Request: fold
Amino acid sequence: MSEPTIGRSFAGWAGALRYEDLPPAVIDKVKALLLHALTGGLLGANARAAQDMVTSTLVEEGRPDGATVFHADRRASRIGAAFANSEQIHASFLFDSYRMLTHPGPVIVPAALAQAELEGRSGQELIVALVVGYELVCRLADEFIPSTAARGFRPSPLFATLGAALSCGKLMALDEDRLLTAIALATHFASGLNEGPRAGTNELLIHEPQATRNGVFAAMMARAGHIKGAESCIEGQAGFYNAFTGSHTGQLSYSFTGRKQVDMASITDDLGQHYKMLDVMFRIYPCPGYNQPVIELMGELQRNHGLAAQDMTQVRIHMNWIETRYPSPAFPRFEDWQKPRVWESTHYFAARAAVAGGFPVADGWGPGKPDTDPRKEALARELMLRVRLIPEELRPMFSPAIEIDMRDGRCIGGQYTYERMVWGFDALSAQLQACQDKVPGGTSRWQALASQVEHIEKFESVEPLLGAMRKQPA
Reply:
């Protein structure tokens, strides 16, 4: 008997998975992912673009028996509500991140919440659905992300569409065959190009919300029962990997690790025993993910050594080379990544952290806002001219090293590892407390949300979560 295909393996595992099968660390991680995404959903209410999208969705897809739309007093179709809620999470710039270029949370969480609400699922069932969606994304994306980006596709919406489809299918109680069909349909609906990020335009603001719609729709069509998905939808000769990475046999064009070949069997090895979703990290600053550990490390060095930015003669930041050529070495936005750019470059964010000892957490705005203190902003702009990036092919992703030359002759340095930003619920909650007063409704509302998320497995429905996200009384 031949081995099951990748799609069949995931469908079989997802269909059989139960809450009781999950290790405590995985449950804790899901709670952290939920809190992160829903905090973003609260902050996203402040964004004009998200408000406009919510209004448009309610006009086109509003229905009284639909799913909850965050911050609204009306409901929408399951597709419409998932889209609108994704837009609000995405507008906050508070994303989770796996392998730098994939952000599952703004897609999987709102898609799953809408289904859990309309299907009458419990908190435990929501947790299981999020696990299968995240694990699918992480395992499929893992080594393949740079190769996907090099073909001109933006990895985040592509892989997350499949994760949302599997999460929704699980909550719809689809059998194994229909879960496979949901995954297969999602491979057809996956979309998103890197030309916007490369050119500096903002089409990507709609990528994750549209991926959310597509994932929900894939599960709905699988439930309808008229379509049969291809067993080989992932690794087939004309399947997902061949289309979006250029090879159906695991050959890579680019890699964070220098590898050029993946054993395709490794994608499903130890499925249900080893969870790659535990390695999802959290973006808490409103800037690209590769700058997050740079901010963390620079802030630590400044605080621990009492450094003054004006006394730094040169700053050298060692990074994985792919991180210095966003969105892809094949299509970098800037040919000269050594040129400091205000609000866009690693040079600037490192300088801001050196001046202030850190950076605002989840400030409710996207990249492009100067420091409120003009003197600190001026110091940061001066220092960023003395920052130099040193790309290294084999340096681990999101694991920078920084060396700072001081006027008194000292050289202060340190390293940061990716694992330090892979937090569980308690650690993430402690980080997000810095922004709790910025959400609509303030500290009390955020704390109520955090409490509901922490105890979600005890609830017979997702109503407590959704109640914390609805429009508050005036």
Q: What stands out?
A: Residues 24-43 form the longest helix (20 residues). The longest strand covers residues 312-320. The CA atoms of residues 157 and 208 lie 5 Å apart.
